[in-house]
Write a structure and sequence with these properties.
The protein has about 260 residues and is of the alpha+beta class. It has eight helices and ten strands.
């Protein structure tokens, strides 16, 4: 290890013990060595997501009520016609640090990281946030912070029933016709990784819905990458753009060749 004196004597902090400085060849060799472990972690994450898709479901028979921009809404309404629903419990309400100008700092960081929801919607998935603040306050907060995530008001015991009355957490639900099932839940450090489209899809029962995934028989799957689109260009029954198919095919072939 090398020693950096930038924060050393006189700086109030101990000197940093930095890694050695090596040649480009040695750096590349070190990267390739670490890449073996990183690829193993990626495959393990894929296997864990496959196991998650096979978790048992829990029927949700209780009727829950929410308030949204358009008025009262049921849990079924929150799906917005899609089959999958991801619900993040954000703390924005009286008694939370920051009220009434801000939501919880941690929950706000989560909101700041959320990718455009159109990509989730294209995979039959709806993402929403819920809090106990009235809709007028939620609308004001969203406008101030530049958030476009659908955000509903809790009005009953939903948060207590699903483990998010005292701490943040993410619940996942699946709709089969008029029936709703709870399929997954994560909180604490599990929420830290959320925000991007892939991590959200990986906690849903249907997953990313691409052909390479290990999913139960009959689950929807489409060709890898082909559904990807600009967030303002998703249309119902749209077919993949021919040029994008060519580009994604070439990219996937190069990716597969590197793995072999």
């Amino acid at each position: 290890m090398s020693t950096s004196t930038e924060n050393g004597p006189g700086g109030g902090q101990p000197a940093m013990q930095t890694p050695p400085v090596v040649s480009p060849q040695a750096w590349e060799a070190a990267r390739e060595q670490l890449l073996v472990k990183e690829k193993a972690q990626t495959r393990a994450r894929d296997a864990l997501a496959a196991e998650r898709r096979r978790m048992p479901w829990m029927a949700v028979d209780k009727a829950y009520a929410f308030e949204g921009p358009a008025g009262k809404a049921s849990l079924l309404d929150l799906f917005d016609g899609r089959r999958q629903l991801i619900v993040y419990r954000a703390f924005f309400e009286p008694g939370v640090f920051g009220w009434p100008d801000h939501a919880c700092r941690g929950c706000s960081m989560v909101a700041d990281q959320v990718a455009h929801v159109a990509h989730l919607n294209a995979r039959d998935t709806t993402l929403i946030f819920v809090s106990r603040a009235p809709q007028t306050d939620i609308a004001r907060l969203k406008a101030r912070m530049g958030w476009e995530i659908p955000w509903f008001t809790l009005t009953d015991s939903f948060d207590a029933d699903f483990g998010v009355d005292e701490w943040h957490g993410t619940n996942v639900f699946f709709r089969d016709g008029g029936r709703v099932f709870r399929t997954y839940f994560l909180n604490n450090r599990g929420d830290e990784q959320m925000g991007n489209t892939w991590n959200y899809l990986d906690i849903t029962p249907l997953g990313r819905q691409e052909v390479w995934e290990d999913s139960p028989e009959g689950y929807p799957q489409t060709p890898t990458y082909k559904w990807w689109n600009w967030h303002d260009n998703y249309t119902v029954e749209a077919v993949p753009d021919k040029k994008w198919v060519e580009v994604s095919d070439a990219g996937e072939a190069a990716f597969r060749a590197q793995r072999e």
